[in-house]
Specification:
alpha/beta; 6-stranded mixed β-sheet; two-stranded antiparallel ribbon; 19 helices; about 50% helix
Length: about 450
C-alpha cells in the first residue's frame, strides 16, 4: 500500500510541477518582467524517500526533463483539474491556448497532457530545446522500452506532437497505491495467469525430458548474466523459444507452471479464443497487445494447443489463405524478437510450422509414461489417508493400463468421490476398474 511518506512525496512533486508550469506560463505570456528559467527550479530530493515513485525515479536516474514528463503523465489520475487551475490562475481570462497543448476527453473534462504540453512546459518557443525534449519521446527511450508510457494517436493528418501522453495502468497503480495487481483475462489482455501448488517432485517424467527442462531453467536463471555481463547481447538473439509436444495429460502445462514457480516468474496461458479473430488484422492486433505488455516483464508466455496459431502455412488458394499465412509470418517475427520465454504446447510436433521449429532452442518431448512411471503416478495420486483393498495390485494395474498422469488423476478423483458417497474408508478393485473403464471410454479406447 502507498505509505504516508509516498503520499507526501507525490504532493511535493505536484507542487514542484506547479512551480515549473507557472513559471513557463509567466515567461511565455510575459506576465512578469523578470523571467526565470524553468530548469532552475529544483525538483524534490529523492535520495531518502522510499515510496515507489521516488524509488523508480532514483533507480532509473531520471533527470529534470524526465521527472517533469513522468509526473505530468500521472497528473490526470491524481489531480484532474491541475492544469486548468494553473492556467486560469496565471492567465485569469478563460480561453483556448493552443500553444499549451493538451486535449479534452469524452468523459474526462480536465486537460489531458499531450507531447506538445511537455514541449511547451520544458522548452517554450526555444526550437533547439524543443528538439532536445522531443528525444524523450523516441521509441528507444526507457519510457517506451519499459512500456512506462505510450502515445495515443490523434488523427493521422495531425502532427504527432498532438498525441496524448498515456501512463501505463500498471505504473499508475505502482505510483499511487504502491503495488501492481496481476493483469486479468479480458478482451484487451488475452492471457490468464496460471499457477500450481504442486512441486518438482510431483512431476513424473523420463530423465531425457527432465534434462531438457533443466536446460530451460538454467536459461531463466543465467540469461541476463550471459547477455549483459558476458557481453553476448550482440551475438545471441533475445529470448528463448521451446516446444512442448506429446499426448494430452503428460505434464506440459504443469511443467510450465513449475518453471515459473521455482524461478519467480508469472506464467500466462494465452487464451486462443480471445486472440484468434476472423476479421483481417485483428489476430495480429491482439497478439501485439500481448507481446507489448510482456516485453518489459519477466513473464513466461504459454501457448497451449498452439496448432491453432502456429500451424503449418498452406498453399495460397484464396484471400483467406493469404491472410492466414500473414498471421503466421507476423507470429514468427514477434516470437523471434521477444526477449522472454515463450513455450508452445502441442499434441503433435508435426502440426507446428517448420519455420518456428527451426528457431526453437528446445523441442521437449512429453511421451506417455511407461509402467514404472505410471506406478509412481498411482502412488503419488492416491489419497494418503485412504486404504486400498487387498485385491488391488498397483504394479499390475500400472503395467496393464496405458494412462497419462491426467487420466490417473481423473480416475483417482472418481473413485475417491464414490468411496466417500458410500461412506467407505477404502477403495476396492471393482471400483478402481470401474474408474479405469470410464476413463478409457472417455478417451475412445477399448479395455
Amino acid at each position: 500500500m502507498m505509505t504516508q511518506n509516498g503520499q507526501h512525496f507525490l504532493e511535493w512533486e505536484l507542487d514542484w510541477l506547479a512551480k515549473v508550469v507557472t513559471t513557463r506560463l509567466e515567461n511565455h505570456f510575459k506576465i512578469k518582467q523578470e523571467q526565470k528559467e524553468v530548469d532552475a527550479i529544483p525538483p524534490p530530493d529523492i535520495e531518502q524517500v522510499r515510496c515507489s515513485y521516488a524509488q523508480f525515479a532514483r533507480s532509473n536516474n531520471l533527470n529534470f526533463e524526465e521527472r517533469v514528463i513522468l509526473i505530468l503523465s500521472l497528473v490526470p489520475f491524481i489531480k484532474p483539474n491541475f492544469l486548468d487551475d494553473l492556467i486560469s490562475g496565471v492567465l485569469k481570462n478563460p480561453g483556448e491556448f493552443p500553444q499549451i497543448g493538451g486535449v479534452r476527453g469524452k468523459a474526462f473534462r480536465g486537460i489531458l497532457p499531450t507531447v506538445e504540453t511537455a514541449l511547451f512546459i520544458l522548452a517554450g518557443d526555444d526550437l533547439n530545446r524543443r528538439f532536445h525534449v522531443q528525444s524523450y519521446f523516441n521509441q528507444d527511450h526507457l519510457f517506451f522500452t519499459k512500456q512506462i508510457i505510450h502515445l495515443e494517436d490523434g488523427f493521422d493528418s495531425e502532427p504527432s506532437m498532438s498525441n496524448r501522453i498515456v501512463l501505463d495502468d500498471e505504473y499508475v497503480e505502482l505510483f499511487t497505491v504502491g503495488e501492481v495487481s496481476k493483469p486479468k483475462l479480458s478482451t484487451s489482455f488475452p492471457a490468464q495467469l496460471i499457477t500450481t501448488e504442486m512441486e518438482w517432485g510431483d512431476l513424473v517424467l523420463n530423465s531425457a525430458t527432465l534434462d531438457q527442462i533443466n536446460e530451460i531453467e538454467i536459461w531463466i536463471k543465467y540469461n541476463n548474466t550471459l547477455m549483459n555481463e558476458w557481453g553476448m547481447k550482440k551475438k545471441i538473439k533475445p529470448g528463448y523459444r521451446c516446444l512442448f509436444h506429446g499426448p494430452p495429460g503428460t505434464g506440459k502445462t504443469l511443467t510450465a507452471c513449475l518453471l515459473g514457480k521455482y524461478t519467480g516468474r508469472d506464467v500466462f496461458r494465452v487464451d486462443l479464443s480471445t486472440v484468434v479473430s476472423k476479421f483481417i488484422g485483428e489476430t495480429e492486433k491482439n497478439l501485439s497487445v500481448l507481446f507489448d505488455k510482456a516485453e518489459s516483464k519477466d513473464w513466461i508466455l504459454f501457448f497451449d494447443e498452439a496448432d491453432a496459431l502456429f500451424g503449418k502455412r498452406t498453399n495460397i488458394r484464396d484471400a483467406h489463405d493469404k491472410y492466414a499465412n500473414q498471421e503466421v509470418s507476423y507470429l514468427l517475427q514477434r516470437v523471434e524478437s521477444h526477449s522472454g520465454l515463450v513455450i508452445l504446447a502441442s499434441n503433435y510436433k508435426s502440426n507446428i510450422d517448420e519455420a518456428f521449429t527451426r528457431r526453437f532452442q528446445s523441442l521437449v518431448h512429453f511421451p506417455m509414461p511407461k509402467s514404472d512411471e505410471r506406478l509412481t503416478l498411482w502412488k503419488q495420486s492416491l489419497p494418503a489417508n485412504i486404504n486400498l483393498a487387498g485385491d488391488i495390485n498397483l504394479e499390475e494395474i500400472a503395467r496393464q493400463y496405458e494412462l497419462s498422469g491426467a487420466n490417473i488423476i481423473n480416475i483417482v478423483q472418481y473413485v475417491s468421490l464414490q468411496a466417500l458417497s458410500k461412506g467407505h474408508d477404502h477403495i476396492d478393485n471393482l471400483l478402481l476398474q470401474e474408474g479405469i473403464k470410464k476413463e478409457y471410454i472417455k478417451e475412445g479406447k477399448v479395455i
